[in-house]
Write a structure and sequence with these properties.
Length: 310
């Protein structure tokens, strides 16, 4: 069986030195994500004869892959494990977690390896195992390293979940997605603005439904998009207005109340335009009592029916 020598998702930057031509035991056992303990591309360092090290792949914190050694050749990454494992250096340090995009990209790489090499979808801590391992699992034979550190070693479950299309672990309170005080303040301000924004939208929708002709005081329908909340409120106003106009007794009551308000206004004006002397509050109080009695007899009931156009 022929196995691929390059990863389609990587920028090809094959180095001419610091690796062994051939020598990989096929199919490979799985993937070893290393920690770079540094920043930026490793192409220059791996191309330096003085380094004496390399890896098949490098993954940036931004999620970009570079390939330095073909998969049929041995990279110089984990000592005795070199012939059996595909190695990938990952930008960052062992005190830092992977970035979310690094988790996603490693998941994509491992999923591709499952298809291309038959990697087993599992985590292993044995150099003779299969799946998703660590540099440190090889002990002294692999160089006696602690790579990639506890933080990243413990994220292998999330890498495997990403490869299998499963939900990853929920973020902890120490991760970067927790809101800062400034972000929290902006969020709170946005929440406080919601009632005003909703009111503005409802008012606009209601006005698009119900209009009033000031010349003849008639309510009429206007073109409106069906299904909005404002439409429902507007229909209530519209129907109650129609009922209001059809109720002769109610109209008569309101006309009488309006007349009493006019009389009250006249009585108050007499008090305020006088040139002094005794003030008689009797007419004002009488009109107020009459208006109160009149309004006390007024009862308005709005009922929504199934057919709002009835």
């Amino acid at each position: 069986m022929t196995y691929p020598t390059t990863y389609p998702g990587a920028k090809q930057r094959i180095i001419p030195i610091n690796h062994s031509d051939g020598g990989m035991v096929q199919p490979t056992r799985g993937l070893i994500p290393h920690v770079q303990m540094g920043r930026s591309s490793l192409f220059g360092w791996f191309s330096n004869p003085a380094s004496g090290v390399s890896s098949h792949l490098w993954l940036s914190k931004a999620g970009g892959f570079e390939q330095y050694v073909e998969f049929g050749d041995k990279a110089w990454a984990e000592g005795a494990g070199n012939p059996y494992w595909i190695s990938c250096e990952c930008e960052g340090s062992d005190t830092e977690d992977y970035t979310p995009i690094q988790i996603a990209r490693l998941g994509e790489l491992f999923a591709w390896g499952i298809r291309a090499f038959g990697w087993r979808p599992q985590i292993t801590d044995s150099p003779s195992g299969y799946g998703l391992g660590t540099h440190r699992m090889g002990g002294a034979a692999w160089g006696g390293h602690s790579c990639p550190g506890d933080i990243r070693a413990n994220r292998r479950g999330d890498i495997l979940a990403a490869a299998l299309g499963r939900p990853a672990s929920p973020p902890t309170s120490t991760q970067e997605d927790v809101m800062t005080p400034e972000q929290d303040a902006r969020f709170t301000k946005a929440l406080e603005a919601i009632p005003a924004a909703v009111s503005a939208v409802l008012a606009k929708e209601m006005k698009s439904l119900v209009t009033r002709d000031n010349a003849n005081n008639e309510v009429r329908m206007a073109d409106v998009a069906i299904g909005t909340v404002g439409q429902a409120l507007g229909l209530l106003v519209l129907r109650s207005s129609f009922e209001w106009q059809r109720d002769d007794a109610l109209a008569a009551t309101l006309r009488e109340a309006s007349a009493r308000l006019d009389a009250l206004t006249t009585a108050v004006n007499r008090l305020t335009v006088g040139a002094g002397g005794a003030v008689d509050l009797g007419p004002v109080l009488a009109e107020l009592r009459a208006l109160s009695t009149q309004l006390g007899q007024l009862t308005l009931t709005a009922t929504i029916t199934g057919d709002t156009h009835a």
